[in-house]
Amino acid sequence: MFSLFKKAAKLATKRSKKDVKSQTILEKILIITIANQKGGVGKTTTAINLASALALAKRKVLLVDLDPQANTTMSYMQGEVELEQSTYAWLCDNPEDLSAAFSQTSVEGLTLAPAHISLARVEQQLQGDLEAPYRLKDVLSKVASDFDFVIIDTPPTLGLLTVNAMVASSQLIIPIQSSYFAMEGTDDLLDTVEKIKRRTNPNLEIMGVVVTMYDKRTVLGRDILAQIREVFGVKVFQTVITRNVRLEESPAYKESIFSFAPKSSGAQQYMKLGREVLKRVS
Ligand SMILES: Nc1ncnc2c1ncn2[C@@H]1O[C@H](COP(=O)(O)OP(=O)(O)OP(=O)(O)O)[C@@H](O)[C@H]1O
Ligand SMILES: [Mg+2]
After folding, report:
1. Is 33 near ligand 1, meaning CB less than 6 Å away?
2. Does residue 53 contact residue 151 with C-beta atoms inside 8 Å?
3. First-to-last CA distance in the chain?
4. pLDDT in tens, 68-127
5. Is the pLDDT score of 38 beyond 90?
6. How far apart are CA 269 and CA 138, in angstroms?
7. Is 246 touching ligand 1 by the criterion CB < 6 Å?
8. What is the radius of gyration, based on Cα positions, of the chain?
């Protein structure tokens, strides 16, 4: 028992030195996690299109896919992703060349760190490793200095992958789908954010809540939007993302919404969201 305490105390000292060093590097970059443990609410759609909007605004952006479903990856890449060139390797393999996981996208200024289905094994793989929640933060402090923004897409769980993203981030964006069950699970999400703020990352802030798949023609849609605004107040972005079939189609063509359907409401709204994000961080 005593040796376990000694081990934990040693780790805490080591971590605090490491954290001061990586914090100074990471402070210059805006690292934004997109999270909500509810599935299908528009996390990936927001991650891929917000990242593109920021790149079009001449920011250098790294889009990190931490979801074993790899939907963000498939939205920009053709073909198979090699395990050693994925974010799985970042977390589990201690590779020598961390930038091997970088892949250029069709969008100028937007680099992708692709996911591999093996990310589903990370929790099991890192079991018992006291440093497991810090893996992504440590990697980003080494590879992210060339970027202005890092956007991290997370899976629909509050497990180790999402925790890694939140520990590495200064900002969190929560997409909430405009639906009858919109607020389901947000308490657990906010609890997790509070725990991470208290224990591992006091810098984490909720930048905003983005309402997705909104249908203003229905009374239910308008009621839900009003309810989300009542609960989250000014945290709710002014820009609301309405339902737009073009947003569903563009990943199949490996294009961002801005080249696939530049005049669509989806392109206009995500561009507006990008501008709001830039305003909130300035
Ligand atoms: N504004 C929108 N209009 C129409 N379809 C949308 C919109 N936003 C997202 N979708 C579609 O809804 C589905 C779920 O969206 P998305 O994959 O972004 O959610 P997610 O939260 O990342 O899901 P998961 O939890 O599985 O990772 C996708 O088919 C996507 O194309
Ligand atoms: Mg997703």
Report:
1. no
2. no
3. 48
4. 999 999 999 988 899 999 999 999 998 999 999 999 999 999 999 999 999 999 999 999
5. yes
6. 34
7. no
8. 19
The alpha carbon of 163 and the centre of ligand 1 are apart by a number of angstroms equal to 21
**Reported pTM:** 0.93
CA 88 to chain CA mean position, Å: 15
Residues 120-161: pLDDT tens digits?
A: 999 999 999 999 999 999 999 999 999 999 999 999 999 999
Q: Atom 14 (ligand 1): residue with closest C-alpha?
A: 40
| Domains located in the chain, CATH noted | 22-281 (3.40.50.300)
- 209 within ligand 1 shell (Cβ under 6 A): no
Pair of tokens at residue 99? 């930038």
